[in-house]
Amino acid sequence: xxxxxxxxxxxxxxxxxxxxxANYGDPGASTLAHTAEKAGGLRIPNLQKMGLGSIEPREIxxxxxxxxxxxxxxxxxEINCGKDTTTGHWEMIGCxxxxxxxxxxxxxxxxxxRRWMKATGVPGYLCNRPISxxxxxxxxxxxxxxxxxxxxxxxxxxxxxxxAHEERFGLERLYEVxxxxxxxxxxxxxxxxxxxxxxGTNADDFTRTPRRxxxxxxxxxxxxxxxLEEKGLPFYAIGKIEDIxxxxxxxxxxxxxxxxxxxxKVMEAVKEQNKGLIFANLVDFDMLYGHRRNPAGYAKxxxxxxxxxxxxxxxxxxxDYLFISADHGLDPTYKGTDHTRExxxxxxxxxxxxxxxxxxxxxxxxxxATVAEILELPPLAFGRSVLS
Length: 388
Fold this sequence. Notes:
Strand content: 15-25%
Shape: globular
Mean pLDDT: 97
Strand order of the largest sheet: 10-9-11-1-12-13-2-14
Structural class: alpha/beta
Radius of gyration: 20 Å
Distance between the termini: 20 Å
């Protein structure tokens, strides 16, 4: 019978600092453990029974080790350079990055921005420096409304972010500017261009909307997704997965406005597609709570996901394989507002797989290598299946 793989990435839900965390300024970061501690314990019974609390070093308050976990459990270590969405997701599908994407602590080069204005047709820009996205619209949103100039900014990640008012600047116009920008920034080795729409009338009520879009560099080939495409298997992309992978091999894509919406879309995909790959990214952990250093909100977000996970587990049959993991860390109790270099959890549930301790995996690519084995695809360039 046909086999079906479902991957759910809990965006930024790290499980403890990586061995090289100090190189990234992140020693001691631990998203799950510190969130649980600040919340006075997490109430996540479905993740607990899957084995989340059994993963070493087992320090998640409220999520103790399970006596009889229903899933295989372990953690993965990133070997790609960086600690952002693209580097993590690329490694999962077997793409090795020998050098990191470029970052811009002093903003983007002025000569490049002059050429960018000519290509996009925008009359000017605001900001051009690393800054929090929620802060920059408060600081410059009113000037944006007066001038019509989009707000260009970056972060510690390799991102060219463009914030603009959905109504005054126009949502489709913002998307088009970002599409043109994606074609220009390869020369700078930028990982992602991100459209950051917002609404409101003044600094007191400017709010980012869920209609963000990411425009990523195309991942190196071959990889898990190109193997999937060559075999003719369907790939259902949920949330920003389509954007992260530059639409490679995607047969159907749906965007989401929240984690709850994302899980509803996963359930719809399970009903609609009975083979191949269903791949979802749930971004609320990162976007709403991690970057804003809100551990209470982060904890509630984890508990909401756990509640939504229950019906999905009950719906799966012997030919289904559910992976739950993350792409990087973002400790909401840590300094600054950036991602944290962490290992990530790996949970694998299938009624046809005997649960076991997967230990500490050497690379995120072990996830993709396992998917390749399940779907009988060619092996990846690196990574080792947890089933072999």
